[in-house]
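[job 4471] stage=fold_predict status=RUNNING
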Amino acid sequence: MRYMLTYDLMETMRNTNQWMGATASSIASYPVFSMVPNPAFSMMAAWGEVTERTFQRMIVKPDWGIRTFTCEDGKDHLVDVTTVVERPFGDLVHFRVNGREEQSRKVLLVAPMSGHYATLLRSTVKSLLVNCEVYITDWHNARDIPVSEGKFDVEDYTLYLVDFMKELGPDTHVVAVCQPAPLTLAATAYLAELEPKAQPSTLTLIGGPVDPDATPTDVTDFGRRVTMGQLEETMIQRVGFKYKGVGRMVYPGLLQLSSFMSMNADRHSKAFSDQIQRVMRGEASDHDAHNRFYDEYLAVMDMTAEFYLSTVERVFKNREIARNEFVVAGHKVDIGKITNVAVKSVEGSNDDISAPGQCIAALDLCTGLPDSKKASHVEPGAGHYGIFAGRSWRDNIRPLVIDFMNANARKPQHRAANSNKVA
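[job 4471] inference complete, writing structure tokens
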């Protein structure tokens, strides 16, 4: 019960701050106060507006916001986000462009399950949609999954990826971003050994901790310093009465968000202070740069306790994948069995979450893969976010990844016109 009360206390604090923001904005916006030339009322209204939006966004799953796509015919075609495989803890979804010829390059984006929704990869999806059929793993918020659906740990996650790859077929190009890189590598090896005909054509791993000890960071050092008992005691809570997953043990998204924010507290504090000033001056808008970023950044989701704890213990502490000792459903996965899937690693030289060296370690594990099917790229000056969604991705990394897919495709590929755009 203690864990459930803690969870509800966090939700109460969030709800209270949202209410305080809404109240301050409403009171300070009374028309009568416009007769009083006091900037305090403008400041109060601006503070309330920013505060209400900030705390309200923490429990809202963002929309994909990809509605139309301009094809070679010059017309805007509607984009449907359709579910291909539906599962309790995550779905496989497809961005289908109505009226466009199906693209021969089929891409599966494996989104991270690390506290944010798959919509964090919205810009990545848009950039690939130009000349690819794009699929993505859409993980669900653990607080909304009833306890009756059972557990979900790193082995279950890996088996989900196996099923998704089998569904899409061997002509698929898999791109794993950040956290799922080691588990996607394991899923590919699992298929290579047990169902080789279902292997994807290529596997691109972007900024993932395949070997966390290759280049230690604050993230990996934290995993080393704390014991599993300490993690379970301080990080795990039980979903409260407000949600369908009441009683489920989770690592709360709000707790994860507080950790994210504390890592760069000064920068976030200045960003919100500047936004309040912009609202006061009438320079802010619903979709300005601040709101576009923080609407996504603040939207967090809970992870199941067993997934979080098994990730820390098996991927970071025991380094089971880095040591090629990972076991899935009683089967020891041998990454050396990958012999026919081209593998590429992408890292950012300034990545402070998965530092250079952690992801490229995957290539050394692929002992059965010829050098001709291995590739790596370190993007100069790029941080963690930039290598999959920022300028570095758009200008440099995406073209390299597309060329890698083309060079190792099992089916002929064709390029779509560069003029295609997403609206």
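[job 4471] summary: The first helix runs from residue 2 to 28.
[job 4471] exit 0
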